[in-house]
Design a protein that fits this description.
By secondary structure, the chain is α/β, with parallel strands linked by helices. Strand 5, helix 8 and strand 6 form a beta-alpha-beta unit.
């Protein structure tokens, strides 16, 4: 017997497509995996070395629920530097990835009868987490505005039931980066309507000039009391499988998160905690800069390949490592007598006939787009887009 909650849940389409691509590869099919939400590169030697040292030092015991004291102090210093506001160790916590941090934040902040505004397109897990908390996601369309939030439209979406906003910048899946003006306008609305802002900045160090990432608390210091910051080491430090994330916010919120996590995962893996301490060392700044430079080059390759397919249009990404092209023209064509009625069918056809894995935009609340990750080697990007171009040319 399943609960109503379980029956209402759907699996992550990003994970599903990624797993299907891996299965085909294991069967000997050369699949270009554009579906991955992770970098195709190893993490730094210092991080791996710290993990080995922790194992050799027999770090096998439970830690405090939200992490060892030293790590929480280092995270507090990191957030303090990033925001310009003072954060104590009691205002931050380490979690098993940013996904757990987001779930914890939503679960302790929202409840039945609450509405939570989520700009759309959105990361696939945001609305599911809101529903799990018993609240209602309210979507704010942005595609008509090149994926920019219009604060006037946001103001009109606020109702007496609105309790929060979930914001992701740099943005997955579009690569958009919120401007300072948008964040300041959003902060004014949050202060005016007593709203909680869940601020997901997991891609904050993966931004490409001239775009600039802004932290909402740094822009508007009064927002510290009503902002829950979410960070991750998965992307920037190539630690996706390590599950290393953190949360920062009002002390009462973080205490509630600790209580919740004590009944779910307990502490995150303590080996990963010691590895994350190494990630926070200044010596890894060069590693991060190298990742950013590599992604900038791969983004250029992806954009050039996209520009060569006139049937597709795409807003240039400013951060993260995805392009989100509009494929709606392809939905009016057919391949060998089969018409892709929607982006889900198109993604299936691309996997079957072109051997490229993309994530359909329906996972992110769009019926016109697909998400393509360029966090793979440049030759794979070129091969994948060549296959995509060949598929498009075969459409009638």
């Amino acid at each position: 017997m399943l609960s109503d909650r379980a029956r209402a849940l759907t699996g992550s389409q990003t994970s599903g497509m990624r797993n299907r691509a891996r299965k085909l590869r294991a069967e000997g099919v050369h699949v270009i995996n554009f579906a991955a939400g992770e970098l195709d590169q190893d993490t730094s030697d210092s991080i791996k070395g710290a993990a080995r040292q922790a194992i050799d030092a027999r770090r096998n015991q439970y830690t405090d629920t939200l992490g060892i004291r030293e790590l929480r102090e280092r995270l507090a210093a990191r957030v303090t530097h990033k925001t310009g506001a003072t954060y104590a160790a009691e205002e931050v916590g380490f979690t098993a990835g940013a996904k757990q941090a987001l779930f914890n934040a939503v679960f302790v902040s929202f409840q039945g009868n609450d509405e939570v505004i989520i700009p759309a397109p959105y990361w696939v897990t945001f609305p599911e987490q809101v529903r799990l908390a018993g609240a209602t996601p309210v979507f704010l369309p942005t595609a008509h505005n090149d994926f920019r939030i219009d604060t006037d439209e946001l103001a009109r979406a606020i109702t007496p039931r609105t309790r929060g906003i979930i914001l992701n910048t740099p943005h997955n899946p579009t690569g958009a980066v919120c401007s300072a003006a948008v964040l300041e306008g959003l902060a004014r609305l949050a202060l005016q309507h007593d709203l909680t802002v869940v601020f997901d900045e997991c891609y904050d160090e993966l931004v490409y000039e001239p775009a600039v990432h802004h932290n909402i608390v740094k822009l508007v210091p009064q927002m510290k009391a009503r902002t829950i910051l979410i960070g991750s080491f998965s992307k920037t430090y190539c630690m996706a499988g390590w599950r290393a994330g953190y949360i920062a916010g009002p002390q009462a919120t973080v205490k509630a998160v600790a209580n919740l996590q004590s009944h779910t995962a307990s502490n995150a893996c303590n080996i990963v905690q010691y590895a994350t301490l190494a990630a926070l060392e200044p010596g890894n700044d060069k590693f991060v800069a190298g990742i950013r430079a590599q992604l900038r080059e791969q983004r250029s390759v992806a954009q050039a390949c996209l520009a060569a397919i006139p049937e597709l249009s795409c807003v240039a990404p400013e951060g993260a490592f995805y392009v989100f092209p509009d494929v709606s023209r392809l939905l009016t064509m057919s391949f060998r007598g089969q018409r892709p009625e929607n982006v889900d069918t198109l993604a299936e056809m691309l996997l079957e006939h072109a051997h490229i894995a993309v994530v359909p935009g329906s996972a992110f609340g769009s019926d016109r787009h697909v998400r393509i990750s360029y966090a793979i080697p440049a030759d794979e990007i070129k091969t994948g887009f060549a296959r995509l171009a060949g598929f498009v040319k075969s459409l009638v």
